[in-house]
Amino acid sequence: MITVKNISYAYRKNKAVLEQINLHFKAGHIYGLLGENGAGKTTLLKSLAGLVFPLSGDIEALGHEPAKRSPDFLAEIFFIPEDFVLPAVTPKRYLQVMAPFYPKFNHELFYQFMEEFSIPQETNLEQLSFGQRKKVLIAFGLATKTRILLMDEPTNGLDIPSKSQFRKVMACELTEDRCFIISTHQVRDLDNLIDELVILSQTRMVLATSMQQISETLVFKVFHEVPADALYAEQSISGVKAILLNTLKEDTKIDIELFFKSLLLVPNKIISALNNKTINHEQYI
Ligand SMILES: Nc1ncnc2c1ncn2[C@@H]1O[C@H](COP(=O)(O)OP(=O)(O)OP(=O)(O)O)[C@@H](O)[C@H]1O
Question: How far does the signal peptide extend, from start to end residue (predicted)?
Answer without folding.
Answer: none
